[in-house]
Amino acid sequence: MLRLYDYFESGNAYKVRLLLHQLDIPFELVPVDILEGETRNAAFEEKNLNHRVPVLEWPDGRCLAESNAILLHLAEGTDFLPSDPFDRALATQWMFFEQYSHEPYIAVVRFWHFSGTVGEHEDELEAKVARGYEALDVMERHLEGRSFFVADRYSVADIALYAYTHVAHEGKFDLDRYANIRAWLERVASQPRYVGIEDEVGTKA
Amino acid sequence: MLRLYDYFESGNAYKVRLLLHQLDIPFELVPVDILEGETRNAAFEEKNLNHRVPVLEWPDGRCLAESNAILLHLAEGTDFLPSDPFDRALATQWMFFEQYSHEPYIAVVRFWHFSGTVGEHEDELEAKVARGYEALDVMERHLEGRSFFVADRYSVADIALYAYTHVAHEGKFDLDRYANIRAWLERVASQPRYVGIEDEVGTKA
Predict the structure, then answer these.
(1) Superfamily for B2-78?
(2) A126, A174, B28, B48: which could form a disulfide with B205 (CB 3.0–4.6 Å)?
(3) What's this model's pTM, rounded to 2 decimal places?
(4) Which of B93, B120, B131, B150 to mutate to test the interface with A (most CBs of A within 10 A)?
């Protein structure tokens, strides 16, 4: 069975849990406490030299890191990735947007809040929040007249962007003025086999 | 003909120039001066709402942003992307690593140096440099006993990581203790149809 090295509060790990569940692929969850440094030991380094969750491990020991690389790989040949090559490229584009222009601001500010370290980052907070809103502005404009990010159907691009957008309020981001984003969040949450970030999926290792 | 919206000093734009040249695909270069805000006007926003170069434009007007999404799309079905699905996933993994754990430190510090703004970022510099070295450490360890990042052959994963690593010294990063990285840089630079970041390729629009 596949094993997912997971941190419960991580939106990046949630992306993989959500897609595995929607694909109806059984998996074992291995909780890794990143706050306790559990990604820094030698055993974890063999799975990912870059000390990050999620990591997906196959029964033969092969490991894949980087949430969006995992999504793209699992979605290959399924309805969760467009079959048209250019649409696939656009899905990939939005997934790189998410990791470069969205996650480092929206996820990081949320992490500071829930880890109780926001006070230590006061000098950086304003700039990070501003960049987070810039990412939300881009999403809001792109979603004008669209149901989903690519080819007007639900794909891994939506999963990638949904993970931290739907919990952006935990980083004190206000989505009130983002009507298109809010409607899209509801569309994602109404997909078949949707599970929330707090829902228990997978079996315990 | 394809059009590449390009900024000469951008490693992200260079990645695309290098691959287009290696694939022998003709293209027009459209220089965009990011320092002068030329990605912020309405005409550019129609190509990329996220205000970034590179953007690749097809003759029918379709546009693709995000350097690594462009690389993956252009490399589809060529020798520059592994044909094995898991190897492709690993190539994608390293490309997300590059955009999340490498570029925001190594490229950003280099940009501060050559744009003459390093003095404005003194409070952030030490942390950014440390994270840059962490990325180099990961690369150095992965390259132990390997010629290239994935499947022991040159691929878009190498192009993505090469772009800012080979100019890391312009951000005052010292590669002396990274023997594996230095040997790999030489292997990349000796590939057929290699061009440097300063070499003129493409035609002027």
Answers:
(1) Glutaredoxin (3.40.30.10)
(2) B28
(3) 0.98
(4) B93
